[in-house]
């Protein structure tokens, strides 16, 4: 039997075990996935926040997640391009956190030119993504791919991309599992975190609405990437094109999870497995799903003759309670 020195130490152990159990399904779900991460210029230019972020990325990389990083060096680039044609420098901090980085001319550019009377000068658009070469580097599993928002046209001109356009186009081209934007603050509405955005709302924030799963994270918050990926209740803003969370009638295949939720509550009337299954088959149970995981359930048993009903169950997973 393990003996703790204090109640506080016991709480810390319990919290770690609870967190690890919650994170475990995501460890397997994310393994082998490809994430494209845009790092805002404000975060990139701050060594403290950048180092924390890169350490977490290196840790996840060693867990089997492949990454494409796109530093948004717009703070310097949005100034007049006096040094036209000068190549941007790769960030060597990736090597400091024990991760190999591969960079290259993976994206072909073209001049945006004049659009509706506006001359975009040296601003470029993505013309083509070299998916084969980028996949070769990702599939080898030993390096993180690094992109920049400076590209070159067929005539050798250095052009400044819109970083979010590069991230979106690149994510779609390589069929990335997630596009993550590390911003210099959270998205708030009346000082409250906005947890979900529609595609239209996301496009108003940045041109990122075409990717199936987009995460907008506060890069000033330490460990934000780990918290977002491995906790059921995210700490950032999620943009999804499909149903991220919703309710539906329970089916027979939900029996085990519904029983688990009810047993964990410890406060409901005891029912046998047969009684519980019968209630599910009679459409008494409604479940709440989040990312295909049942996080809550409720049951209403109707007594038509008496014109009343019984709330037979109302359970929310402890991981989701606020």
Structural overview:
Residues 245-322 form the N-acetyltransferase domain. This is N-acetyltransferase domain-containing protein. Keywords: Acyltransferase, Transferase. GO terms for molecular function: L-glutamate N-acetyltransferase activity. Pathway: Amino-acid biosynthesis; L-arginine biosynthesis. By secondary structure, this protein is α/β, with parallel strands linked by helices. The chain folds into two domains: 31-242, Carbamate kinase (3-Layer(aba) Sandwich); 246-320, Aminopeptidase, CATH 3.40.630. The chain has eleven helices and 20 strands. Strands 3-8-2-1-11-15-16-14 form an eight-stranded mixed beta sheet, with helices on both faces. Strands 17-18-19-20 form a four-stranded antiparallel beta sheet, covered by helices on one side. It has a two-stranded antiparallel sheet with strand order 4-7. A hairpin with a 2-residue loop joins strand 12 (188-189) and strand 13. The longest helix is centred in the first third of the chain and has 24 residues, at 7-30. The protein is elongated. Residues 74-91 have low confidence and may be disordered.
Give the helices and strands, then pairings.
Layout (H helix, E strand, L loop, with lengths): L6 H24 L3 E6 L1 H4 L2 H16 L3 E6 L2 H4 L15 H4 L3 E4 L3 E5 L2 E2 L2 E2 L4 E6 L1 H9 L3 E4 L3 E3 L5 E3 L2 H12 L3 E6 L4 E2 L2 E2 L2 E2 L1 H7 L7 E6 L5 H7 L6 E4 L4 E5 L5 H11 L7 H9 L3 E6 L2 E11 L4 E9 L6
Parallel strand pairs: 1-2, 1-11, 2-8, 3-8, 11-15, 14-16
Antiparallel strand pairs: 4-7, 5-6, 9-10, 12-13, 15-16, 17-18, 18-19, 19-20
Protein name: N-acetyltransferase domain-containing protein
InterPro entries: AceGlu_kinase-like_sf (IPR036393), Acyl_CoA_acyltransferase (IPR016181), GNAT_dom (IPR000182), NH2A_AcTrfase (IPR010167)
Pathway: Amino-acid biosynthesis; L-arginine biosynthesis
């Amino acid at each position: 039997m393990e003996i703790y020195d204090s109640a506080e130490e016991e709480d810390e152990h319990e919290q770690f075990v609870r967190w690890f159990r919650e994170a475990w399904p995501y460890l397997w779900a994310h393994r082998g996935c490809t994430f494209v991460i845009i790092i805002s210029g404000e975060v990139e230019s701050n060594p403290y926040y950048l180092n924390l972020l890169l350490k977490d990325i290196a840790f996840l990389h060693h867990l089997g997640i492949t990454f494409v990083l796109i530093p948004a060096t717009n703070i310097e680039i949005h100034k007049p391009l006096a040094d036209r044609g000068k190549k941007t420098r790769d960030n060597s901090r990736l090597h400091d956190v024990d991760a190999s980085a591969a960079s290259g001319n993976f994206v072909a550019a073209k001049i945006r030119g004049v659009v509706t009377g506006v001359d975009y000068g040296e601003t470029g658009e993505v013309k083509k993504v070299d998916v084969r070469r980028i996949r070769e580097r990702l599939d080898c599993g030993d390096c993180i791919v690094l992109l920049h928002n400076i590209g070159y046209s067929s005539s050798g001109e250095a052009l400044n991309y819109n970083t979010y356009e590069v991230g979106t186009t690149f994510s779609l081209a390589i069929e990335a599992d997630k596009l993550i934007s590390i911003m210099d603050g959270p998205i708030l509405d009346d000082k409250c975190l906005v947890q979900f955005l529609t595609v239209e709302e996301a496009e108003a924030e940045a041109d990122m609405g075409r990717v199936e799963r987009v995460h907008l994270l506060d890069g000033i918050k330490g460990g934000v990437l780990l918290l977002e990926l491995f906790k059921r209740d995210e700490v950032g803003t999620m943009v999804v094109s499909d149903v991220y969370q919703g309710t539906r009638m329970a089916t027979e295949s939900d029996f085990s999870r519904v029983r688990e939720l009810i047993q964990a509550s410890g406060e409901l009337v005891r029912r046998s497995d047969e009684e519980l299954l019968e209630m599910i088959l009679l459409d008494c149970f409604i479940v709440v799903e989040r990312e295909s995981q049942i996080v809550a359930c409720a049951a209403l048993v109707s007594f038509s003759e008496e014109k009343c009903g019984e709330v037979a169950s109302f359970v929310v997973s402890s991981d989701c309670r606020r």
